[in-house]
User: Which sequence fits this backbone?
């Protein structure tokens, strides 16, 4: 039997998961479990690069793990782990940093964005390098933030992952990972690391719209339906979703806010129901109140069972700890092999 390809993705531990995360990533992660050798982990060390808060960090890790398990990630099929449970990552991060330039890290878009925010610099054009060098408090720009891409590359390379499903905002980090892999291989004349590629399981990226009539559902937009929302909250959010005055002439084009509701209905409902409301729009008989009631019903069918499982798991540290123990063991097995190869390659050898 051919070996399955290795899929790996990391999730930063910040806040609750919403419907956009669910359809954009999580539901695909669940489906990939059968076809690939999947590793999914909570990037708690990466979370430390900004606003470290010990209690919040621990809470966030628990929540993410509960939400992933509740949505159908199976710790028997996939390797589900917490980054810091694999100390090999930290050691290889130190080693790989010897082959990473400060300049290329400082030019990374995510670093410049975050550094600018922390220094309170608004404009793009201002030279941030001198301000970074001049700032003397680690509250400002810490070295962990600068080396974020090294750590992410190690997450991927230490597992020799082939496919990394991530959003567009992570593309540059993935490009750096490939560059570091090539650089290491060619510097030492080895063929240790494969070059990982971005991976969109099942073709097109799904764009899940928010409820505010604009674009994508996103935590910072405040237009989200969370998997953990209770029935009342969820219904209220959907009933308040932005629409328009309604169609006046048969067959007129659908406005963006209403198209967003149709898109959500297409994700959660049956083709018959979608057709019913599309037809009603086309002949101007649609009532948005009915459409929203239907939409809330259909979303609840998806989210309520997940919510129940999240609540159960959040109160069950034993279940979480068991799942993570299995995951850490599997992740460490491969990581320690790679780390041994890296150490040997770099000349760190026993007498
Ligand atoms: N940087 C990623 C994000 O912010 C999280 C992440 C960390 C990651 N390590 C990774 C993603 C390795 C994929 C692979 O979303």
Assistant:
């Amino acid at each position: 039997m051919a070996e399955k390809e290795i899929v790996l993705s990391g999730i930063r531990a910040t806040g609750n998961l919403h419907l956009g995360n669910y359809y954009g990533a999580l539901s695909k992660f669940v489906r990939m479990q059968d076809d690939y050798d999947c590793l999914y982990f909570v990037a708690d060390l990466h979370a430390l690069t900004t606003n470290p808060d010990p209690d919040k960090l621990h809470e966030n890790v628990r929540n993410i793990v509960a939400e992933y398990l509740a949505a159908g990630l199976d710790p028997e099929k996939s390797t589900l782990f917490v980054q810091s449970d694999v100390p090999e990552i930290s050691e290889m991060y130190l080693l790989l940093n010897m082959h990473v330039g400060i300049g290329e890290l400082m030019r990374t878009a995510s670093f410049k964005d975050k550094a600018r925010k922390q220094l309170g610099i608004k404009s793009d054009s201002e030279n941030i390098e001198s301000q970074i060098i001049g700032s003397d408090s680690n509250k400002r720009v810490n070295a962990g933030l600068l080396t974020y891409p090294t750590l992410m590359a190690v997450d991927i390379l230490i597992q020799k992952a082939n496919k990394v499903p991530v959003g567009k905002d992570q593309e540059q980090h993935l490009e750096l990972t490939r560059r570091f892999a090539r650089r290491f291989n060619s510097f030492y004349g080895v063929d240790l690391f494969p070059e990982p590629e971005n991976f969109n399981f099942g073709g097109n990226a799904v764009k899940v719209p928010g409820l505010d009539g604009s674009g994508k559902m996103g935590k910072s937009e405040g237009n989200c339906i969370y998997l953990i929302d209770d029935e009342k909250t969820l219904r209220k959010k959907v009933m308040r979703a932005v629409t328009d005055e309604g169609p006046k002439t048969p067959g007129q084009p659908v406005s963006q806010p209403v198209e967003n509701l149709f898109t959500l209905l297409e994700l959660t409902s049956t083709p018959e129901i979608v057709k019913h409301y599309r037809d009603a729009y086309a002949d101007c008989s649609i009532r948005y109140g009915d459409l929203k009631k239907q939409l809330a019903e259909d979303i609840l069918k998806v989210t309520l069972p997940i919510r129940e499982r999240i609540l159960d798991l959040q109160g069950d540290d034993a279940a979480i700890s068991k799942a993570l123990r299995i995951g850490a063991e599997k992740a460490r097995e491969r990581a320690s092999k790679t780390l041994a190869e890296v150490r040997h390659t770099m000349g760190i050898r026993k007498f």
